[in-house]
Design goal:
This protein is α/β, with parallel strands linked by helices and 386 residues long. It has a domain at 2-146: NAD(P)-binding Rossmann-like Domain (Rossmann fold). It is 47% helix and 15% strand. It has helices at residues 12-23, 39-49, 59-68, 79-87, 105-113, 123-139, 149-158, 183-187, 191-194, 204-212, 214-226, 265-273, 287-290, 305-315, 319-335, 343-354, 363-383, and strands at residues 2-7, 28-34, 53-56, 75-78, 94-97, 117-120, 144-146, 166-173, 234-238, 244-250, 255-259. The strands form 2 sheets. It has a 7-stranded parallel β-sheet, with helices on both faces. A 4-stranded mixed β-sheet has the order 9-8-10-11, with helices on one face. α4 (79-87) packs parallel to α5 (105-113), α5 runs parallel beside α6 (123-139) and α6 (123-139) packs antiparallel against α15. The longest helix is centred in the last third of the chain and has 21 residues, at 363-383. The termini are far apart. 47% of the residues are buried. The structure holds NADP nicotinamide-adenine-dinucleotide phosphate. Residues 8-14, 35-38, 57, 83, 98-100, 103, 121-124, 148, 200, 202-203, 205-206, 264 line the site of NADP nicotinamide-adenine-dinucleotide phosphate.
């Protein structure tokens, strides 16, 4: 029986994680949950999974949740500090890190520093402070298991092989909702259109990131730190069907890939059960039904965000954190109708141009960069003519 804590339990990854817990009640016990503001869903989860403690973003949410959960044996705390306390509470072996965005950095680091293994879906902290997270993980003898389907595929394709034999990592990209649109058509895309991902049902931020290809840019940075490999040896391949989740090429030119239907419960369960494979009662991949798989190169002209990911790594230090924060601000502005789809890349580009990168020596460098870049990106958003 593994005891677990889920950060971001009300989200897409969080609910998929709880689906696995529900399927394997003998294998997992949930002792802590955290959410942002979806009190209704969190209340349901408390009643079903009976965690010892939960945390929410605001005091108002905590007050409302306490009212709803009167008589239930659960501690309810709030704020960034409360979420970090639940992330670090004693008694858990594994923390599923599934908050969206930079908000996950402090609690994920708190979980690492308290010696818990991490199943990492929340890629933004790795982008902001990957080196620091890996150093802390080593110091506290913590393993970070990837949940992102691409990184899980690479992790699985590396199993039983020597890192020094790896030639390159190849991340596959679906291309997102807008891959077939021309540059002119991209100018007029509305959020509802960009949110229609062809293969995956995910939270809104990552779905927009998939449409801009910034998701792949973030994943290149994530892969750099998860697998300790320079960006010059990480490639991206557009594969619309999302069946091959990623590949590793070895020095003898042999390639090993991991395949499966696009269902996040497979990589989540692998990270949760490692090294065991959970017998998931899901449909099997039928390659005869799929017929053919297609591949193409990324289009940097229509989707410039992927290049920004590589560039942020080449510059290094605080630049990926600045890029990440600008992206979060720009995506939110797009979703709220404040900027055009194509301006997301412009806001990130201009924020990066204005940023003087410096080394990340500790958490404060990442957090301070995040604050600075948010202000800068916000000013850029408001300066755009609308
Ligand atoms: N979804 C996928 O299939 C997928 C695949 C690979 C990687 N990922 C990564 O996994 C992470 C989660 O993605 P998702 O799609 O599950 O996102 P999501 O559906 O939007 O869920 C996000 C979760 O984070 C919570 N949250 C949001 N802002 C917060 C804050 N400021 N403080 C505390 N909690 C906060 C939300 O709480 P409330 O809803 O209660 O407000 C929710 O529980 C992202 O980093 C994403 O890139 C996701």
């Amino acid at each position: 029986m593994k005891t677990i804590i889920i950060l971001g339990s009300t989200g897409s990854i969080g609910t998929n994680t709880l689906d696995i817990v529900q399927r394997f009640p003998e294998e997992f016990r949930v002792i802590g949950l955290t959410a942002g503001g979806n009190i209704e869903k969190l209340e349901e989860q408390i009643r079903q999974f009976k965690p010892r403690a939960v945390a929410v973003s605001t005091e108002a949410s905590a007050i409302e949740l306490k009212r709803r959960c009167t008589g239930l044996p659960v501690d309810i705390v709030y704020g960034e500090d409360g979420i970090a306390r639940v992330a670090a509470m004693p008694g858990a072996e594994l923390v599923i890190s599934a908050i969206v965005g930079a908000a996950g950095l402090v609690p994920t680091l708190a979980a690492i520093r308290s010696g818990k293994h991490i199943a990492l879906a929340n890629k933004e902290p790795m982008v902001m402070a990957g080196k620091l997270m890996q150093e802390e993980a080593r110091k506290h003898q913590v393993r970070i298991f990837p949940v992102d389907s691409e990184h899980s595929a690479i992790f699985q394709s590396l199993e039983g092989h020597r890192l020094q034999d790896v030639r390159r990592l190849i991340l596959t990209a679906s291309g997102g909702a807008l891959w077939t649109l021309s540059k002119e058509e991209l100018r007029d895309v509305i959020p509802e259109r960009a949110l229609q991902h062809p293969n995956w049902k995910m939270g809104s931020k990552i779905t927009i990131d998939s449409a801009t290809l910034m998701n792949k840019g973030l994943e290149v940075v994530e892969a750099r730190w998860l697998f300790d490999i320079p960006e010059s040896r990480i490639d991206v391949l557009v594969h619309r069907e999302s069946i091959i989740h990623s590949l590793v090429e070895y020095e003898d030119r042999s390639m090993i890939a991991q395949l499966g239907l696009p269902d996040m419960r497979t990589p989540i369960s692998y990270a949760m059960g490692y090294p065991e494979r959970m017998p998931l009662d899901l449909p099997s991949l039928d390659l005869t039904e799929i017929g053919k798989l297609t591949f193409s190169k990324p289009d940097h002209d229509r989707f410039p965000c992927l290049r920004l990911g590589y560039e942020s790594l080449r510059i290094g230090g605080t630049m990926p954190a600045a890029m990440n924060a600008a992206n979060e601000v720009a995506v939110e502005a797009f979703l709220n109708g404040g900027i055009r789809f194509v301006e997301i890349a412009d806001v990130i580009r201009s924020t990066m141009d204005a940023h003087a990168a410096r080394e990340i020596r500790g958490l404060d460098d990442a957090l301070e960069t995040d604050r600075w870049a948010r202000e800068k990106a916000d000013a850029l958003v408001h300066a755009l003519p609308h």
